[in-house]
Amino acid sequence: MANLILLGFMGAGKSVVGQRLAQRLGYRFLDTDKRIEAKAEKSISQIFAEYGELHFRRLERELVGKLTEINNAVIATGGGMAVDPDNLRRLKTLGRLVYLRAAAETILPRILNGHHRPLLFPTHPDRQLQKIKGLLIQREPYYNQADHIIDTSNLSVPETVGEVLKWWENRP
Ligand code: S3P
Asked: Given this structure, which CATH class describes domain 3-155?
């Protein structure tokens, strides 16, 4: 079950870092949002708009439940996936968890033009930072249960990849 699982808020770099990690390790790459979109044949935004957030969360739970027999994969999770005790427990059985942390001030500019972040938009621009801060407070108790935490606020993508690899190659 040598899977490396990335947790963290939107804009933390899970997908881009995850893809590069997979290349470096010779692992396959799995992005849970992409899996959900492929299965539903709809974008995340369409799923939120047509069926609502609760339905999306059900799809996330279903997907985690089906991730068995997966090995040598880097898995990038959607920002809300680990924010559920059952999902988190299940993810822990699948591999080692790395939380890519980023400050709200770093996250906001990174996600401003993201089209698959219906949770955050349309929040009035003046309130977006507060909204991210509030969600981070709710979510950190879950994210912090990862095996390893890397603060990416001041790191480039290659630096973050390097930090994850350093830990992965020497993991206890
Ligand atoms: C969400 C994060 C998104 C996506 C959905 C909900 C969240 O994924 O799953 O919009 O609740 O934080 P990314 O973290 O890949 O942006």
From this structure: alpha beta
